[in-house]
Structure formats: C-alpha cells, structure tokens
Structure to design on (237 residues):
C-alpha cells in the first residue's frame, strides 16, 4: 500500500509540472460552471426568439449525462498521458519489477484516479446539474460515467504509441459518450444499434426513469474493459 501511495503521489507531481494536464484536471469545474450558467441562458434566449416554451429543458438530463462522462474522462485522460509517457521512457517496466509491481502500478494509475473521478462527479453533479435527479440517479450516473472514463483510458493506452497519438485518440474515443443521444433522438428499435456503447444505457436510464438500466451499462463497460485490458497486456509484454 505504501508503494502504491508513493506511485500515485509521483503521478501528481508529474501532473503539477505539466500545465496541459493540470488544466485538464481543473476543467470539470470550469465546464460545470459554464454548463450551469450557459445552458439555461441559451434556453431563455431561444424561448424568446422562437416563442416556444422550454426549448432545451427536455434535454437537460442529456446535458447531465454528458457532464458525468466528461468529468471522469478528464481525470482519466491525465492518467492515460502519464502512463503513455512512462511507457515511452520505459519507466513502467522498471516500476513493474519494484515493490510496486504491475498490480500496484495499475492501481495507482487507473483505480485511484477512477475512484477520485467518481467522488468528484458525485460532488459536482448536484451542484452543476441541470435536471432534477434523485440520489440514486446521481450515484448511478457518477458510476457509469467513471466506468466510461476508465474504458476510454484503456482504449487510449492500449492503442496509442505516444502522447500525441494518445491526445488524438482521446478525442476520437470520446465519441463513445454520444451513445447517450440515441434514446433522445433515435426511434426504437434503431437506437439499439448503439447499445454497444455504455452511454446508451445511461441515456436509457434517464429517459425511462429506470435505475435498472445501470446493469447493462456496467456489463457493457466490463466487456470493453476486459477486451482493452487484454490488448494492453499484449502491448506491455
């Protein structure tokens, strides 16, 4: 446990020296403020312009879903960039043969950032959220968003060979979040074509007002993580 703690502290020191990663870690707070103030303002302006009522209000839940996905993605993006740099410099291989070991390394780089992302989302969503969410909704949205962030992290580190590729792949892999749009805009059964995305089931959970959809969200996330983990293990051998 001591080795894991020191490894995580080392990562934080690395992040502190990199302004891009530091900004990524702070961005969930800025995004939350912009969303909480900006979306209702835009809705009021559209209401005045179109003469309609609640132009964007029906989609406030969708904005909350995307926010709970963006927050973990930013935290996990930081971890992914650190892991890629350590892989490029062959530091990870040295760490694997220390007291830390492979298991401890991945705990400090994946599990701890994931837990922090979950807790931060759990705190920020009630503050910056736009829709009326129950405590169960907040808990499950934070959980599924965190799992999605871990999936994107594994996707980036398993398929990228350097930080530049990692940044590009992070942008592309973030499209996984768009599965949440399907329950809002794509009629069934066609929307189920995106059911391989964990975010699709998160969207179903909110649109159907049924926490039971968190189960397929977790299962789909677990399948993604298993496949990507195997790919990553092959890469680091």
């Amino acid at each position: 446990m001591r080795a894991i703690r020191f490894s995580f502290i080392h990562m934080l020191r690395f992040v502190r020296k990199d302004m891009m990663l530091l900004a990524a870690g702070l961005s969930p707070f800025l995004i939350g403020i912009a969303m909480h103030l900006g979306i209702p303002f835009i809705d009021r302006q559209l209401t005045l312009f179109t003469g309609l009522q609640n132009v964007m209000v029906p989609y406030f839940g969708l904005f909350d879903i995307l926010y709970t996905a963006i927050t973990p993605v930013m935290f996990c993006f930081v971890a992914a960039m650190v892991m890629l740099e350590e892989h490029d410099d062959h530091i990870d291989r040295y760490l694997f043969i220390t007291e830390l070991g492979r298991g401890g390394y991945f705990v400090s780089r994946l599990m701890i950032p994931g837990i922090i992302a979950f807790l931060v989302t759990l705190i920020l969503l009630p503050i910056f959220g736009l829709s009326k969410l129950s405590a169960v909704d907040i808990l499950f949205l934070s959980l599924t968003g965190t799992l999605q962030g871990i999936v994107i992290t594994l996707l980036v580190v398993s398929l990228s060979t350097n930080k530049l590729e990692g940044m590009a792949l992070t942008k592309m892999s973030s499209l996984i979040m768009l599965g949440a749009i399907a329950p809002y805009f794509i009629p069934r059964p066609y929307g189920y074509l995106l059911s391989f995305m964990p975010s699709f089931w998160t969207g179903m959970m909110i649109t159907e007002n049924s926490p039971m959809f968190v189960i397929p969200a977790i299962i789909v996330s677990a399948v993604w993580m298993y496949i990507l983990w195997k790919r990553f293990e092959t890469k680091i051998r």
Observations:
- The two ends are 24 Å apart (CA to CA).
- The chain has a mean pLDDT of 84.
